[in-house]
Design goal:
Rossmann fold; alpha/beta; nine-stranded mixed sheet
Length: 285
């Protein structure tokens, strides 16, 4: 629910996308804080909501979006406390609350149905949205979303010292390294965006994901949700055991595909390969 004095600031981005829809950046003033929204593609096309993971922003989808806009109205939001979205005034980063807040944003945008795509921990927010709003979510696609904490393999060596915040480029790249295949160069704009976030927001978002996954493994949640499910997993993931993608086969009707040569973030590492696996699923709904 939004507050009575909720209002919207918006301006159109100068660029345009394929089809008849322009790109538009909007800041929605919500009760819990401002949320940045980016829309690309024809507004009359089926809605596709993209949810990024923690310690990232909606810009992590930049390379993939142009491959999706011919058939979809692509909607991205920056998570609270990430990128251009404000930290939540109540400090609530929990995954169920994220699901509620994404639902309220889609309501504000007039979206009645959407296919939801989550990358990494963005898949938890997408699942929470489907748990709460089955009327809104037509189908779910997860990209390198860990199914359970037993599948987590990333070393915990690269951490940030609160006394040394903001971190250097080298510290950020070391922290982000397991999120990509070996040798992948993290774009500088994403390094800069992470530096612009608060350590509290990053830590809270990560802890919220752990809590959500610890409470109930994702395949169990998704079986209860009962929505069409497509899972894409880079087979070189260094954060989550790639073979754990098979855990999602417990969900009736789930489609599970490995993307050869990609690490944890195929949306940046291999956008064309990701789109080739994603579009046949999203276009069905």
């Amino acid at each position: 629910m939004t507050s009575p004095n909720t209002h919207t600031h918006s301006h159109s981005h100068p660029g345009t996308t394929d089809g008849d829809g322009s790109s538009e950046d909007t800041v929605l003033s919500m009760q819990y804080g401002d949320i940045y929204v980016r829309q690309d593609g024809p507004r009359a096309a089926p809605a596709l909501l993209l949810i990024h993971g923690s310690a990232a922003t909606g810009r992590s989808w930049d390379a993939l979006v142009p491959l999706l806009t011919a058939r979809h109205r692509v909607i991205r939001m920056d998570l609270p406390g990430h990128g251009r979205s404000a930290e939540p005034v109540d400090g609530d980063y929990t995954i169920p609350e994220l699901g509620r807040r994404f639902g309220s944003v889609l309501d504000r945008l007039g979206v009645e149905h959407a296919v939801v795509v989550g990358h990494s921990s963005g898949g938890y927010a997408g699942t929470a949205l489907a748990e709460q709003r089955p009327d809104l979510v037509r189908a779910l696609a997860l990209i390198n979303t860990g199914p359970g904490m037993d599948a987590f393999i990333a070393p915990g060596t690269a951490t940030f010292d609160p006394a040394q915040w903001p971190p250097t480029d080298e510290q950020i790249r070391a922290f982000a390294s397991p999120g990509f295949r070996t040798g992948f160069e993290l774009p500088q704009e994403l390094v800069d965006e992470l530096r612009g976030m608060s350590l509290g927001a990053i830590s809270a978002a990560m802890q919220a994901s752990i809590a959500y996954l610890t409470a109930r493994a994702l395949p169990d949640r998704l079986k209860a949700v009962g929505k069409p499910l497509h899972v894409i997993f880079g087979d070189q993931d260094r954060r989550w055991r790639p073979s754990s993608a098979a855990d999602y086969r417990d969900v009736p009707g789930a489609e599970v595909e490995l993307l050869a040569g990609s690490g944890h973030t195929p949306i940046l590492e291999d956008p064309a390969g990701t789109a080739a696996l994603l579009l046949p699923f999203t276009e069905k709904y």
